[in-house]
Amino acid sequence: MFEKILGVISVVLLVFIIGTNLIGQNNKTPRTISLTTQGVVKVKPDSAKIAMSIDIESEESIDVATQKLINKRNELVSALKNLGLNDSDIVLEEMRTNQWDRYNETENESEGKSKRVYNVIQYLTLRVTKENFGNTENIITALGKIKDTFVLSIDKNLDSQEGLIAEARKDAAEKAKKQAEDIANSLGAKLGKIISVTTDSQNYTPYMGSLANIAKSSEEVTTADAQWFEGEDEYTTTLSFTFELR
Asked: What is the DSSP letter of 219?
């Protein structure tokens, strides 16, 4: 009887020891490597937006100033169409009219000797699409040949950012794997599977900011302004990885 009791106790102890070991193994925290990498994709801009104005003055009447502006606008539109822009690429924005008295420098304002000046301003936006982007320098040069026109700002853009996220993520993942493998090798371990990936954040950074508020007459717009479009922009994404170590 006593031997049977000892046998039962031995079996219970054995089961307890085995169970404890299994639980300990299951609860054992795996060794991991966590790191954050940034994926970078460099891209050239392929579209642009040019904000400009036509500024006309006349001492005759507001109607004369308006007609002169229309003639100048037609001249501008014709030149731009010859360079490949369509009607949809030339957006007519706000038109403003002003008038004031202009005094000659030799005359005394108090004497009331002045000439009435009538002013009409037409604002436009030129959309240089992907198809015409390679012609940007010629477009800017053409603007420089038309008097009474002013370039207000130039912005370059990407026609589409589709695919950039995937490319940037791929670059980040490749960098992360390489760095993790180097760390694992230095520890005498092997790199295992990816345990987790943290949601990334994206950032699109033009290599140069907008050429805003240039305040140049079109005659002053130079080739350097067109060459501004030749640089590459950066699209970046940040990913955080956790790898298993074996």
From this structure: G
Q: Which residue has the tokens 């520890």?
A: 187
Torsion of CA 95, 99, 105, 108, to 10 degrees: -160
Alpha helix segments (H runs only) across the chain: 2-27, 62-82, 136-144, 164-186, 223-227
Tell me if 18 is assigned to some domain.
Answer: no
**In-domain check, residue 76:** yes
Rg for the chain (alpha carbons), in Å? 35
Residue type (1 letter), 136? T
Measured between alpha carbons, how far is 102 from 115 in angstroms, rounded to an integer? Answer: 5
CATH (domain of 89): 3.30.70.2970
Q: What is the pLDDT of residues 221-230, one digit of tens each?
A: 555 555 556 6
Residue 195 is assigned to a structural domain of this protein = no
In a domain, 7, yes or no: no
Closest residue by Cα to residue 235 from 67, 39, 19, 18: 39
Question: Phi/psi zone of residue 145: left (φ > 0), alpha (ψ -120 to 50 degrees), beta?
Answer: alpha
184-195 pLDDT, tens digit each:
999 999 999 999
3-state secondary structure of 147: coil
